[in-house]
Amino acid sequence: MLNIKAERQLKRKCWQILWSNLRVSKSRKKREDGCYMLMVRRMLTMEEPASYYKGQMELRSSVRSGGERAERVYRLSAGGHANRRSIQNQGMNDDAISSESKRRNDAFDKCTALQIPRNENERADALSKFGAMVAGVKSRKVTIMIKERSAIEEAEEVQMVQEDRSWKIEIMRYLKDAILPDDPVAAKRKKFKAARFTMIGNKLYKRTINGPLLKCLDKERAEYVLREIHEGSCGNHSGGRSLAQKVARQGYFWPTLVKDAAEFAKKCESCQRYAALIHSPATPMEPIQIASPFDQWGIDIVRPFAPAVAQKKFMIVAVEYFTKWVEVEAVAKIFEREVINFIWKNIICRFGIPRVIVSDNGTQFQGKTIMAWCKELKIQQNFTAVGNPQANGQTEVTNRTILQHLKTRLEGAKSSWVEELPGVLWAYRTTPRSSTGETPFCLVYDTEAIIPAEIGEETQRILQYDAANNQRERAFDLTMIEEKRDTAYAKILHHKGLMMRSYNRKIRPRHFQVGDLVLKKVEVSKHVRKLDPGWEGPFKVTKVKKPGTYKLQDLDGKYLPRPWNIHNLKRFYT
User: Fold this and answer.
1) Ranges for the Integrase catalytic domain (predicted)?
2) Read out DSSP for 198-229?
């Protein structure tokens, strides 16, 4: 093993490499620049016992052999070490040794062989043991590589490049030269496939059943044709199958035409942004679990109406999920304070503190003030995803019903909606709900309200009214009200089961994972004009809050403030 000093030192000493401590072993010294250099390592295995002098000569011979390549550039200075005890004194012609040794030493300015103790020659001993292990191998070569860093650190990501061999070559070889694969099955298949093709000059064409020959294209030209026909000057951004048919009608063919056309149309950015909106559900319905009356309320804001008295143009609507009782109040502003006052006056002061309030993600319901107030009263707030009113479906249905009743009552006097609101609420509360089979008034008070029709045309309970008997019957009814509510609860569960079966039949499953790119509906966040795209984005999915609900981030790294439901999302293909 050779030990090399620093490059600067080599230059200062006229390109001489100073060899020191030459051993037939492994060097542990470094150059100053951090590199290792191994020029020669020689391991001698002599088939016959060796004397000290013979071993010395062989050692010098190894140095000489290793230096033959180097002496063309440098004049070398070297030293050799050997353990005399390891070399047996055997008879040998000293003159021959001296002559050969002198001849080999001439290549060096200085070359000496010294005797050293065995404990100072450990590395050479280790190499000799290695030589003994491979003594039976006639031809061997040992290479030692010293690296500054591990292979893992040096590893670099590379892109695998595969040669694209055109699918046309095998068919053309058969049609021109009748060359077939050696495998008989593959040869039979090749002949069967080639029967559908023909050669005109050096061009390959595909035969069709009742049309012209189709020019066969390789991958590169196929991509050009797809792009030009789909989005070129005469392109119409058609769907995958329509695009494939148009390509074939124009006279082109390749084996994966239908698949490639579908993939190309699916990944077209313009087609994705202007695609039709998705109306089919993606996840099963998850109905709200109801425990008891006045336990859960849904709350929403209906906006805006024509300005009425005191500039009131908004409605705060709350619906109790069990009895379907509804509370509505007209307000001029829709800030947190108005919502807190509504909950306190119309819900808590009349029916007690609810356990859960369900609302959308509006700032009126998600502000710091109202959230702290609800936390103080231990009211759990559940928020629906953006653009997913179905999650608070009971409130949305009630909103539509109230609006429809107001429209039919107002006719031309649109600003009188506040005055008509109490009558609309009374009508709603005294009308049986299909989900319970009872009126909200009955489930709350265990009796039916007396309506104006019963006064104009008296009914039996008006004609046969007995105050004393009525009090006893009323007490009994209140005692047995739980039975009526249990019956209503069973009907609610049955009604929800029917809704779930109907809803889940329309499901077209889809889901996203963290890191997926998606588009979201534009109409959810802003008004859409006639020529505007229906989808915007792409956005990156950063978190799955629950199945069908996701947190999003735009490509600039900005997080969208609220979770989005999968109903308003679609996958973006690149």
Assistant:
1) 289-448
2) EEETTEEEE--SSS--EEE--HHHHHHHHHHH
